[in-house]
Structure formats: C-alpha cells, structure tokens
Amino acid sequence: MFNGNILILEKGKIAYQASFGIKNIEPVESLSLNSQFRLASVSKQFTAMAIMKLKESGKLSYDQDIKDFIPSYKIAEKLRINLDIKKLAKDCEGFFIYSSERPFLIKPNKKLTDNETILLWLLAYHLGTAINATKSENVSKEFLQRKIKKSGKITSTRLNELLHNDLVKKANDCDYALTDLGITLMQKEFLPKIKFKYFSKNR
For 92-199, which CATH class? Predict the structure, then answer.
C-alpha cells in the first residue's frame, strides 16, 4: 500500500496532488500536503548541480576551502582541535610526565612490543608539542632505538613497518613523527590495548 504524497505538474500548473497514509503511528497522524519527508541521498544530486552551476558562473571552484564561505568554521575548527587535545591528554594520563626538556614514561613496561613502544614515545612528543611541553613532535631514530633497546637494523625494520602502514612519517632524514592516521588510531585502537598491558599486573 502506498504511503506518501503525490504531486503532478502539467505545463507548470498543479494537475493533481494528494496525501495518502499516515506520518505517525503513536499518536496516529495522517499525512498532509505540508508534511515533511527525509529525502536522504536523493537530495545530493540537487546539491551537486547547484555547485556545478556556481562553478560555471565563476562563483566558486571545486577545491575551494569551506572557510571562504563560512568564516565561523575557522573558529569551530579551532575549538574542535582544542577539544581533541584535551581528550588526548586525558587518554594519556598515567603514561607521561614532562620536564623542561622532554617527556618521560612514568612506568616503563616490558610487555609492550617494539612498535607499541615507538608509537607511545611518538605520541608523547606529539602531545608535548600540542601543549607546549616539548619544542617539536619529531623524534630521532637514535632516541627510539635506545627506547626499544634493539639494534639499528631492527629499529629501521620497525620504523619501516610503521611507515608502510602510514602510522608514522619521516620528518627529515633521521627524525620521525606520527601521521594524522597514526594519531587517530593510537587514540581509538592502540592506546586502550597499550593501557591494558601497561597497567595490568604481572601474572
């Protein structure tokens, strides 16, 4: 059984319109000509065509920044970033302390894998830079090698694995930092696993 509204136009004039069915079950309400519907993805084609027409008339370009049209978006973005940093700082509680020179792990844990240790240190420097506790988020290969206590060859292998998975990026010839993907996955996936290992008692 059809449930909805029908509108037929003929030469720009309404030839037929009617409403059938209900818009609410509890309480029961019948549809009317003024009832609103969720069009979902059906509306995308109209938005796309509107953008193409604006592009055609020279009022925008396809790769233009949304901040050009909605200046308040810049403020909203800054607020979002600040909130993200606060959440990240909260998630990292119990892992790091910061001196005037660099971060320190409060409680080094031998249960962590080499890659987890590298990611944790890179996260410490990323957070430290965001809260102005460190000068840079970049960390040298030599520093990371000392932290995992492995040979230079093994350290390079571990870093290449992280680079291949786009979790880490090379800042220069010898320094590394987390990628945006690395930061996101650290916060959502890896950090909870590391936290479990980090604070679980030896059995």
Answer: mainly alpha
